[in-house]
Amino acid sequence: MGKDTKGFFRRKWFLRIISLILALFLFMYVNGSKSGFLRQNTRNNNQSSALMSNKSVTLRMPLDVTIDNNKYIVSGYPQYVKVKVTGPSALVTTTSNTQNFKVYADLSDLTPGKHRVKLKTSGLNSELTSKIEPQYINVNIQPRKTITMKVTIRLSTRDLDNGYKLGRPHSDIQTVQVTGSRDEVNKVNRIIAFVAIPHDAKDNIARQVTLQAIDRNGQTLNVVISPTTTNVSIPISAGSQSSSSSDSSSSSSDESEETKSSSRTSSRNDSSDSSSETSQSSSSISNEDSSSSSRNQ
What we know:
The protein is an alpha+beta fold. Among the domains are: 50-134, Beta Complex (RNA Polymerase Alpha Subunit, Chain A, domain 2), CATH 2.170.120; 144-238, Beta Complex (RNA Polymerase Alpha Subunit, Chain A, domain 2), CATH 2.170.120. Helices cover 41% and strands 35% of the residues. It is built from five helices and 17 strands. The chain has helices spanning 2-9, 12-52, 89-98, 182-186, 240-296; strands at residues 54-66, 72-75, 80-88, 102-106, 113-118, 120-122, 129-133, 136-155, 164-166, 170-171, 175-181, 190-195, 205-210, 212-214, 224-226, 229-234, 236-238. The strands form four sheets. Strands 2, 5, 8, 11, 12, 14 and 15 form a seven-stranded mixed beta sheet that branches. Strands 6-4-1-3-7 form a five-stranded mixed beta sheet. It is elongated and about 140 Å long. It starts with a helix and ends with a helix.
């Protein structure tokens, strides 16, 4: 029986079946490993493609102007500009979050007057490209000028509805420094502190007021005033109508007191006269009784 068993395992068809099964298992194993490897490679390639793909974003950036601010004043340029940044997605995202670059206009070599200037960027990664909107700006360069001017207080009204009177206003700042372009500073006519007065005001007024530079036509000018505010105090006192009313009231009170006093005096005199008359009457009666008594005797 043992010989038959050994002969069974040695037969060619049995060995072929075993070889086929092992070959199938080996094929399935190798094929599965390749599929997993391909899936992993595909996933990595997709991630790499996502990181390396191009992306665009539009940023709102402040505009820097390069010029000697101690000598010149620049006007006419926008405070912010738009910048479209394009490049690898990771770099664009980082740049959008940090905004670690700047947009500027170099005016250092320009003379006073009006100019058209191209905007530039600096600090932007070399793998990124940018497009600025607008690409050019118009600027007006003027020599810087500073003058000293006196502060003038302007009140919204001089008369109050309740008979009270406004006193002389006082400002804690008498003069200020006015700085700007030469053309604009030359137009300054006055530095005013405007105070709105309520028509029914009765108490002293104290206000902090922003100073304004105006021209001969009363138009506000674009200059820098230093300091920018002043404290204004305005005394308020009772007017002549209020005083007259008070005097009239006092006079009426005095007349009333005099009338009361006169009435009291008159009453006392009447009482005295009445007492005198009563006394005289009693004396007369007494005398008559006395005479009658004598005759009877």
